[in-house]
Each structure stands twice: as structure tokens, then as C-alpha cells.
Amino acid sequence: MATLRTGNEYLRAIKADGRRVFLNAEQVPDVTTHPAFREAARSIAALYDIAADPANRERMTFASPATGEPVLRCYQIPKTPADLAKKRAFYEAWAERTFGLMGRTPDHVAGFFTGYAAKPSVIARGGKQYAENLLRFFEHIRENHQYLSYVIVPPQIDRSKPAHKQSDPALYAGVVKERDDGIVLAGAQQLGTAAVFSDWLQVSCITPLQPGDEAYAINVALPINTPGLKLYSRRAFALQATNSFDYPLSGRFDESDALAVLENVFVPWEHVFVYRNIEVCRAQWWETPAHIYGNHQAQARYATKLRFMLGLAQRLNEMTGNAANPAVMVQMGELAALAQTVESMLRAHEVLATVDDEGVLWPSRATLYAVMALQSETFPRMVDLIREMAGGSLIVQPSSVADFENPEMARDIERYMHSPQASARSRMALMRLAWDFIGSEFGARHQQYEKFYGGASFLVKQNMYRNYDFKRAAGLVDAALSLPPYER
Ligand SMILES: Cc1cc2nc3c(=O)[nH]c(=O)nc-3n(C[C@H](O)[C@H](O)[C@H](O)COP(=O)(O)OP(=O)(O)OC[C@H]3O[C@@H](n4cnc5c(N)ncnc54)[C@H](O)[C@@H]3O)c2cc1C
Fold this sequence. Notes:
The protein is of the alpha+beta class. The chain contains 18 helices and 14 strands.
């Protein structure tokens, strides 16, 4: 009988398992104990504990179609709007645990594979064995509560040339050899958010490929400790978190991002789902609900983060005594309007969803891309509104919580940095939370994340263009032009 994975089981599974993670000129021996990764790994473990808690059974699980045992709801193929609403509730429960600050939790790439599994006929266009591989693998990850991350964009080496015309054909991740038992991959792919914490890495390509790029038209899954796979982590913000008071978020939720380097990595056929097929490589994103299922999760996470942001702004204004100032209320109104739009659009995925002839539910594409297309402009605007309302109070703070240990400093800090509502220490706790959210290196990375996690905004706007009902809109204009003349 399959039992749900607990946080401890997850940590044990990823502990010193041979995964090759590189940081600060060294290989990291164990991500569950290294100070750059330990706390984030625990934050992810907490998600597994939430899902495994019998009190959360209905919200976090559904009955496995294979065994009837509870498995994570993120792997459920929705058939009705009510199913989608339940999936949203699952995503929100996890997102609330991280305040929406971890984007690639185990439910994100789960959405993509659920989307492929909902429409295996698309994958089968490349050969029916690939659809069989996909369905078997999907069952494996669902039944074993596995955590996938992904790298589906080539590294930004030279965007002016297609993959096969780069200075070396093995720069972008692609096939370099075919064997009887599988394929060999070489090259690099970006941007493996949370890859260092996952069980598997999906390697594929979402950017358009051209004839000649067949070697890069793949979709495969690699165990994260596959020989030859290396993860080059960016700067670890958690290491700059000198203590949990001064950096309440950086230390706990730095999900890390990494470049995946594949050094002659062998992939057995059973883990190959798209092979040297440009048409299927494209279709897997747009002709299955993979992209919308994965990004439905991303929107539930984003809406949660914005709710946290609104709460933070409200507390900041209360602390500075500005909450009742009419001008501040107008700024808060703008902030709330932007957050509420995302929240309401999340519900619209359910209301405007359609069910196809195979009984698979498609959340509203136009709804998803409308929010994502504007996210790269609205999120910076929201951050800017908070900066404006906060004034200097994010800056005029003790140099660290240690300042309170010096009696002379503590006296002055208490006198000049308190608020009528709170001691200087409580005020500082809130200000550090706000700074870590918008101003620290961790906070700044989040602005880059919200701009690019779903692709560059020009691409998302193209998605929006493809999914808006221009026919109905233009029909109105035609109707206006066909109105009968009126008499003067
Ligand atoms: C923090 C973060 C985490 C991420 N996590 C992941 C992850 O886990 N897995 C994953 O696979 N990906 C992830 N991504 C997304 C991804 O890897 C890319 O960064 C993203 O898709 C944008 O592609 P790019 O970086 O190649 O930018 P490009 O496509 O090179 O675009 C960069 C900029 O160039 C300009 N530009 C280029 N071409 C055009 C054009 N035709 N028209 C107009 N303007 C143009 C635009 O200003 C654009 O914003 C993440 C990104 C970030 C920032």
C-alpha cells in the first residue's frame, strides 16, 4: 500500500544521494545540511508533511486511479470545474506555507506532467512507445509522490542563432548519441529553479526550434543524481542571511536556481517522451493542457504571494501611522486592485474552463495568459507602491538585531525607532520582513522571477494574442458598420 511521503522521508531521499551541486567553488556534499540549502529543504519538507497529515486528506489528496490510495492532488487530471477548484485549494495550502515565495515546489512541474498524461495522443504522434513511456512515468511519479523540477530554455549564449548553429553544437542540451538502450545528452539548459532539491529533472525545450534543431527537440526525465548531470547554483542568498531576525525570508525560502550541465548523460528509453521531433516538442506545450496546468499552480502561488504583500503593506502603514491617511488609502486601493484582479482571474480559470471531447478539462487559456502577460509590468508597479508608502522606514533601522545587546544603542533605538503601536524591536522585525520581500538580494531575485518564470513577456503576449476571441470583437465592429442609416 502506497503511503504518503512525509517531510522526513523526503529529506532522507535527497540526502547525499550523489547529486552534483556546485556552489562557491565547491561541490555541495549534502543539500539537506549545507547552510545554503538546508532551510529551504526543510520548507519543502514541511509541504510534504502538510499533504501527509490525515486531517488534510480531502484537501491535499485524491484517490489514485491505479490503487485507490491517496496520492497528491496536484497529479489529478481535472474533469470538471469542481476538480480544478480542488486543485487550486491544494496549491493554495502549499503556497500559504511559503507565503508564495517558492515557485517551483513539487506541484509545479507535476502540473506539466499531468497535462501530458491528459493528452497522451499528442505525445504518441512521435511514436506510440513515447506515450507509453510517458504514462508509465506519470504513474510512477504520482504513486511515489515525486518532486520534479525542469530546465526547458537553452542558455542565453547567442540568441541570434538557432540551436544547431551555435559555435559548438553541444552547447544547448541535446542528443549526441543514440544507443540500443537509450540516448546520450550533452550541453546545458536553464534555469533549474529548485532543481537542487528535486528528485527528477525534466529536460526539454519550450523555445521555438527550427529545421536542423532536431537534436534539441526532446523531452526526458533524469534522476537528479544521474551520472554526468551537474547543477551550477547561482549565489546563495541564504548564506547572506546572517540570522533569521535580520533575514526572515532569505534564509527560509531561497529555492535556488541552477544551470544544468549535462556531460554525456545517459537516458534509458523508458524516460524519453519526445525524441528528435520538433513538431511534438512544440505541441506538448500548446496542444496538451501542460502549460496551463503548470501555470494554474503558478497563479495560485502568485495570488497567495500578493495577499501576503497586501498584508505587509497594511502592517507597514499601521506601523508608520499612515494607514488612515487618505492619500495612502488611495495607494493601497491601487495595490489591492492589482492583487484582487489576480485573485479573481484565478477563479475565472474555473468559471471559463472548457471540457474537450476526451473529457479533459482545460482551464481558460485567455484568462491565464492575460494575467501572465501583464505580470512583468504589474508586479514591479506593486513593489514600487510599497517603496513609496514605506518612505525611509525600511532604511532607518538598526544595523542588525545585535544592536539591541548594546545598552546605549538599545536605549536610543527604543526612543527613536519605535512606533506608537510597537517596540523598536517589533517594528524592526516588520521592516526586515518587508525589506527581505522587496529590497534584499532575495527580494530583487523575486522581481526577476515574476518577470520571467513563465517566459519573457513578449512571448506571453503572443500567447495572449493567440487566445483572445478577436472574432467576437471584430464581429461587433462589423455589426456597427452594418447598422442601417438613420434619418436626420
Ligand atoms: C528567477 C527565474 C527562475 C526561472 N525558473 C525557471 C525554471 O525553473 N525552469 C525553466 O526552464 N525556466 C525558468 N525560468 C525561465 C527561463 O529560463 C528564461 O529566463 C525565460 O524563459 C526568459 O528567457 P531568456 O532568459 O532566454 O530571455 P530571452 O528570451 O533571451 O529574452 C530576454 C529579453 O530580450 C528581449 N527580446 C528577445 N527576443 C525578443 C523578441 N523576439 N521580441 C521582443 N523582445 C525580445 C526582451 O526584452 C526579453 O525580455 C526562470 C527565469 C527566472 C528569471
